[in-house]
Structures are given as C-alpha cells and as structure tokens.
Amino acid sequence: MFTSIFSFNLSGQARAMTLFKNLFRISLLAGLSLIMVMSVTRFIALQSGTILAQQQHIQHALSQDFSLLPRQHYDTSLVALSAFLTMQLHPDDYQSIAIAPTQAQQQSLTITSPQTKSAAPAWFIAIFGDNSYSQTQTINLVNDTVIVTISNNEKWLADNLWHHTQQLLIEAGIISFSFTLVIFFLLRLSFTPFQRLITYAKQLEQTHQANPPPHTRYQDLNLLNKSYSSLAHKLESHFRVQAKEAAHLREKAYRDPISQLGNREYFLNQLDAWLTKSEQGGLILIQAKVINQSYRHKNYQRGDHLIREIAQTLNQTITHSNSTLGRISKTEFAVLLPQIQQEKLHSLAELILGTLLPLTKEFDTPLGITIGLVITEHGTSASQLLAQLDNAVIAAAQSPSSPIALSEGESNTNNKGKQYWKELVLSAIRNQQIHFHYQPVLMQNNTVYHQEVFSTIKRNDEVISANQFVGALDELSQGTIFDKHVIVSCVKQLQTDRQLPALAINLTRSSVQDPAFHRWLHELLPYHPLICKRLFFEIQEGCFIEGTDMTQLLCQLLNRFDVRFGIDNFGRHFKSLEYLNDFKPAYVKIDFAFTMQLNNPTQSAVLTSISRTAHSLGIETIATRVETETQLERLSELFISGFQGYIIERQVTRTNNVA
C-alpha cells in the first residue's frame, strides 16, 4: 500500500516537472511567435514604406512645372531638363533617367545614378530584391515634346531593407532573451509552492515523516497539501498498527507468556539456524526446581512472579553479544552464546548462579538452581546438544556446593582464547591470507541487487570462516581492524572492476559502536563518490535495539554519502518493528530461523507478518540461505523481494556463463 501510493507521488513529481517544462515551452513558443509576427509585420511595413517613399519622390519630380526651363534649342533644353530632374531626385531614388524626344531624328538622353556593390547578401536580394519600379511621363517643351522614364534604385532599396532587417533581428533577439528570462523566473516563482509540495511528497515517500509546506495563496495546492498530510497520517497509523500486529503474532508464536522470554520453539529455531553457521560457541541450561516448590507451597501468582524475577535477572546478567535466551520448559531456561570460550562460559555460569541464589532463600529447596554447560562441536545437532546439557545438569546436581557442570563431550579445539583469534586475524591481514567470496542476492525481477562479501582466512590447508573469529574480535572491541581491511579491499575491487555488482559488507558490532571507525569512514567515503553508490553495509538487528545512538549516527553518515545499508537477522529480537520507520534501511535480511520450516503454518504466518511490515515501508525484504527449489517457490509466495543462498548463486553463475 505504501509503495503503490508513493509510487504515484513520484510519478506525480515527474509530471510536475514536465508540467513546468511544458508551460515554459508553451509560454516561450507563444511569446516568440508573437515577437516574430511583430517583427515580420514591421519588416513588411518598412518595406512598403520605403518603396512608397521612393515612388513618391519620383512622382513628385515628374509633376513639377517645366515652364521655367530655358527656351533654347532642343539639345540645350534636354540638358536643362535632365539637370532639373537630378536636382529634384536623390541618387538613392533613381537608377536611370531616360529622356526620349518624340521626333525620331533627334537623339535621346540617359542619366544613370552611380552604383556600388550591394551590402545585402545574395540570398536576401534574391528573396526581397525584386522591387523594380519605373514611371513614364510626357513633358511638353518649347520646341518639342519628350517622354521621360525614371526607374527606381533597387540596389539602394535592398541595402535599406537589409539594414532595417538587421536592426529588427537584433531587437527581436534582445526582446526574446529578455522575455525568456522573465517567463522562466515568473513561472519558477509561481511553481515554488508546487515544488515545496513535491519535496514534501518525496520526503513522505522516503521517511514517512515530514513537515508540511506552508499555506499558499493557491486554493488547489492547499487542498492537495491537506490530502497529502491526511494520507501520510493514515499511512503512519497503518504502519504502526501493522507493526504491532506483527509483534503480537510473533510474541504469540514464540514468546513465553509468563517470563516474556522466547519459548522452546523459538530457542530451538535459533539454535538450528546458528548451527548451520558451523561456528564455535556455548550453551547454558539453567534448571530452577525452586519454581515447582513455589507453585506447590505458595500459589500460582507467586510462582509466576518468581519466573518473571528469574527471567529479569538473566536478562540483566547476560550481556554477551548475539546471545539468545529462552524458557524451554516449566523449570528450565537455556542460553545460546555464539563465539564464547570455555573459560568465559564457566565464569558467566558462576555469575548467573550468584545472582539467582538470592531468589531461592525463602524456599527450603536443596539444589534449587543447577546449571549445565556445553561447548559446541562441529557437526553437532540441536538434539545432541540438549542431551549433553541434560547430562551436565544431572552432573551438576552431584555437587551441591557448586552446582555447575560442563558436559564431557566438549572439544578442546573450540577453547582458543580471544587473543589467539586477534593475533590470527592480524597475521592474516599482514600476510594477505584473507580471501573473499561473493554471494549474489537475486530480486524477483531477476536482477542482482548486490553481492554479500564472505571473508575467510586461508592458512596452509586450513580454512577459517569469519564466524569463528568475529565474536572474539567484538569481545576485544577490535572488530574495526578487520572491517577496515575488508572495506578497503572491496573499494579497490570495485574500482578495478566497474562491471562488478554492488558489494554488501557485514559490519561488526564493535565497528558500529566505535566513533573512531565513524571518523575513518567519513574520511574515506568522500574520495570515492561513484563507489559509494555500489556499496552496502549490513548491520546486525541487535545494534538497532541496543546502542541505538551510535547506530543512528552511523546510518546518518552512510545516508550523507549515498551508501545504502541493510539490517541483518531481521525479526530476531522481541522488540517493536517500528524502529524501521526511524532508520529507513534499504533492505532487511530475514533471520534464518523464520525461513527454515516453511511448512509450519505458525512460522509462515510470522514470516509473512514481519516481511509485510518491512515491505509496507518500501524496504526490500531478502530471504537468506535459500538452498532448495521448494524453499524458493514457497518464499516467492510471501512478501519477499529477493533471495540469497546456494541455489541462487548457482542460478546466477549459470546465467553469467551462458551470457
């Protein structure tokens, strides 16, 4: 609805600009036509007046009284007559004067005006130079009668007309230029309120929040402005209702109603999605038998209150980035901690135990809280991890003094410390061991939207994905080191290959929250204005929920340089989706936990709801890890704009090879 209405606004803007141009052209054409008509009219009048004046001069010369001419012999009389006529006429008026006696035995006399080369061009003379005129009159002299023929001076007439034509052209040019400027500025001034309305509509289309233009003296524009404001208000209300409905549906499907944490299905979906990344991490299972004691010996209201206290305490205690917390049974809470080492996992478990034990003091329950830990192994399934956690909780119950146990199935290969990963990344940067793989995002119209950059470290025969070390870098607030290297490498690649599609770079949390990284980007981006249009940055949804101020500053910086950004793992957090209206990302990538089990009606409904919320703002919605044709077909039926995954990469590669 948003997209269709504001697409109308954009087309309205295009028509508004065309309207201005058309009105300007029409006004200019009308004005220039009028100027041309006036100039032609003046030219015709000047031409007619000049010819008429020349004719009148000749007629006047021939209508004089010749009785005063000397009464002498014939030849002397002809000379006197010619002298008289040349006195009456200007050389510009005549070309020749022919005096012919009526008696054949007498000689005629012809007088010619001196001629020079015409200043008028040949084409002008060919068009307007044919203005020949002659007048003949019989004059009675004393001794005889003569016939006088005077022909006009066509050369002077052409020169005179050409001179006037030049003046008319100069005047017409000056008037036309002045008229064009006046019309342009008058129309521009008249269109200023309309342009403000267009800007207002564009801002509504981009941000859905804009200050309406001031009241104008044009009634129709005021009505249109009022309609836009009313439409914007309705769309804003519609979006908020839609966002609340999406959040309500998601909570109903995946949130535990008592603890307000994710329920078992939500936690397992997140766990399954995370396991596909094959990255290290840890899990904590907290068994609170004290909850049963509360329900049995107190009441349900007190039991529910205890559950909420435990959930609130866990939320405040667990600050690990990208962690997932859920209530998976009546008395059990589980925590997923990506990229955490064994030592820190055990320290966090001790901290959790210390904060929860005070809640059990009023109940006489031995081992009211027991905690099981497990470090993930490659190829481990969710069911295996939960089984290991159950075994760890049983083992923890055997140690009342410290009811915390680590599953014996953990792998020592995952216990590398944060400093190890930091040194590994620094060494890989120095030795050019970081390699990039580009995975395309294909839109519904079969165009490549961008290519996401996946980084790996290749050392000897070992290949290490970014998922294995990014968490450690974030823990040390050193993610900017890696991000800078990736950004500089991608900028160089885009400069080298101008045919390469836009690249999308994932930013670490530490970079998003680092003011120094913001300043570095501010210095880098102005030098690459063309590259900015082919660059995307992907930011984890958690950054928009926590650390909002720094995330907003980064997004404003990116918008300033026309760098588009997207939200990764969209829909993962139980927060209102209204933050989309504040940040206006170019796209969102739906969290994989919502796109795995599309045969589940509840999951499909949640996916449709959160996708539609983003889609209503004109934000592209992208599904990731599309691996099968069935998954692609099912996603195409939902509010999904683009797709990314193995099957998409294979399809794009096949198309490029054919091309």
State the CATH class of the largest domain: Alpha Beta
What share of the residues lie within helices?
40-55%
Supply the helix-strand structural class: alpha/beta
The biggest sheet amounts to: 8 strands, mixed, barrel
* Radius of gyration of CA atoms, rounded to a whole number: 46 Å
Give the averaged pLDDT, no decimals.
82
CATH architecture of the largest domain: Alpha-Beta Barrel
Number of helices: 22
* General form: rod-shaped
Low-confidence stretches: 1-16, 410-414
Oligomer: single chain
Number of strands: 18
| Strand order across the largest sheet | 10-11-13-14-15-16-17-18
Q: If you consult CATH, what is the topology of the largest domain?
A: TIM Barrel
- Measured by DSSP, the beta-strand proportion falls in 15-25%
The CATH homologous superfamily of the largest domain is named EAL domain
Distance between the termini: 37 Å
How many distinct folded domains? 3
Question: How would you portray this structure in words?
Answer:
This protein has 659 residues and is of the alpha/beta class. The protein folds into three domains: 10-111 and 121-177, no CATH class; 264-413, Reverse transcriptase/Diguanylate cyclase domain (Alpha-Beta Plaits); 418-658, Alpha-Beta Barrel (TIM Barrel). The chain is 54% helix and 17% strand. The strands form three sheets. The chain has an eight-stranded mixed beta barrel with strand order 10-11-13-14-15-16-17-18, surrounded by five helices. The protein has a five-stranded mixed sheet with strand order 6-7-5-8-9, with helices on both faces. Strands 2-1-4-3 form a four-stranded antiparallel sheet, covered by helices on one side. Mean pLDDT is 82; it is low at 1-16 and 410-414.
